[in-house]
User: Fold these one by one.
Assistant:
Number 1:
Amino acid sequence: MVRLFVTCVVLSLGWSWAWASLKADELLLVANRNVPGSIELAQYYASVRGVPANQILSLDLPVNERILPLEYQKRLVGPIREYLQTPQNTKIRCLVLFYGVPLRVMPDEPTREQKAELASLKRILEQLDQKTPQLALEIETFASRFGIQPQNFPGPPTVSAQRRVGSVFQQMQQKLNTLDPQTRSQVVNQFEQWQAKLLQMARDVLTETPKTPTTRPESSTTQPLAPLLTPEQAQTLANQPRDAQARSDLRSFVADHNGAFGLYQLVQNQLTWINVDETDASVDSELSLALAVDYPRYRWQSNPWQLPLSASPFRPLMTCRIDAPTLPIARRIIDDSIQTEKTGLHGTVVFDSRGLPEKKRSATRRIRMV
């Protein structure tokens, strides 16, 4: 899937806005040594743009537009990441991909174990979606005796049930001080029983779900599934989302400590790491995450550039491409850009405002600046 919208849209890299400007020594030029003309095009670009020769990376890549995930890791992003992590190259802010570099990363291929775990996690969600609404209704029925009206919330059954239960708990908290001591004690005791039910529900769902080959068998469902784990150890497991055993142990820990609702959220998160659907991606946008340690390839990822850069867990990169159906056209992109910078650009520019009223267009002022 497309990852981050940080791709440079001006291929010439010759814009003049101070906040968007790039210097020649902040570019890394990436070419495919197996495609005739790719390296020469990168060298030509470097010569006319003043990019140092040691900032041309010639890679051994496939000669077609698609690249397998394993090849992408070993032959494309791996060498780029290694180059960028060298101390003298930390200034690189933008990758420029040239004619011949593949366009698309193919979807992941699941292993037999991943298929089994994926089916197991989906069954966990299905069981929770069946069980949690029943408990939510039981809690709401009890709360109605105190004048609390149930509320409906959108979303999957368990997500809706969690919000319904949370709403009741919040309203009951406000009513507790108005109850006599005996009734208040009964209400608190009942809520503690429901909390225990949520914990037990999570344990039952895990023990009822067929295990994957890497999962350790659990014993009695009345006992904690992960009694030896500390919160620190659980965090260590959470930091290993690609490890099947770590995922299994973490599910046990969450079932013991966070109950059905916590287990549901965890399983949804784990699905993003092992689900191979919609894991194909644009090479250009995938490379904007070249310095990320790891991330799920399923669907979209949040753009860290929406946050202060100091808050980003890694340094995202800009990416752009000098490419075309033929090598001469690709070279003309460079030449035309340079000529346009000298003579100026004249003509009509059209922006898609998506049909929004002008007062609601948050980018109106920026568009007018252009």
Number 2:
Amino acid sequence: MSLITLETTVGELVRAMPARARLFEKLGIDYCCGGKTPLAEACRAKGLDPATVVTLLSAMDGAADASGVNPDTLGLAALCDHIERAHHDWLREELPRLDFMTRKVAAVHGDHEPRLREIRRVFESFQAELLSHLSEEEQHVFPAIRQLDSATGDRAETVATLKAACARLESEHEQAGAALARFAELTDRYTPPDWACNTFRALYDTLDRLERNMHQHVHQENNVLFPRALAPARTTADHRVSGRCGGRAAIVKYQCLTPLPLLLAFGPRAAQGRGRRARGWMRNVIPITCALTLAAVVAGVKVFRTSAEGARLVWYGNAAHPYIAEVRAGVEAFARETGVAVHCTVGQEWTQDNQNVNVEALSTQGYRGFSLYPGDPAGANALFRLLRARGQQVVAYGAEPALPTPASFTVATDIQAAARTATEALIGFMGDGAAS
């Protein structure tokens, strides 16, 4: 479960917990085209009490539909596939039915209910524009996004082309949203009159489902797919950060993923593992990982752009754990040697909820920046956004939050590269032991 705050955008709330879309739909809050609107502002626009909406969202989170697909957990190619199956295919099946029903019901009942003719007129334009929109996505935009996911071709050139295409598609989404709002207005929120025939009632029911499907459809593109596809490209620049690791000298080497670096850590004492063979080397793994936070703290000092004396930084460990203990020792040693004031604290539970409560309380005490291990890839972003809204910087370490992220800087383990390095070192140590 992710933190619900009035500063969090409605798109971010649905992205973290897709089932929240149902409540927003009932309240008339636009979380797709209007996904970048903070919750408080969205509530005020609808004349709703923000605190009541937060209470309703919290209650709904406890009964979220586990069968729903969270688009934030899918890769770019898989998300394109999901959108085509769940939304494009649905539209191609339902639009012909709606075309028939809007024409028939307007012809039969238009004299008695003139708004039916207006519904037909709006639908004709909506259908023509939407079918062209779907073709553009399937023939040009989605293939380009899948190419990004496969890491083939010139990424920079593809992203530059996609940026203009996505902007155009988002503009078309707004036009579709205006048509959906018009349908809702003309149908009294899809409420048929008592005298309506079965086709009349089926029309209103399908228009209602069209709105809900389109809201999910546009949300998944505007707030998830497009931002992730347009995220800055990877660079190959190497950086080095030196500090202390649990009292031992350490050098961290990581590749920069602008603006989110993935760490490639090489153990400072790996060469000493020979005499201890594999077991001796493995004992150094946890101390080595504390370099993650050293890189985050050093980067954080630069991000916060303040002097060592003026920095009021927080390092937060999620819960008591050998990893957290080693990392904390390294951070404290770093603080002693550099003079950078870092307040170290550890939570009671390794959950995003516990981190939310503790960090939000700390954020009221004048600290300027936080180094946090995301408790949940998507849920952590809501907390990061809250801190940034309060003028505080955030460095995420240890695990990568969902992209795009409000975090100022991220350092996370490149698992594949780390596993390869560890395996090569282990094989080397085993070889040395066998030879001795």
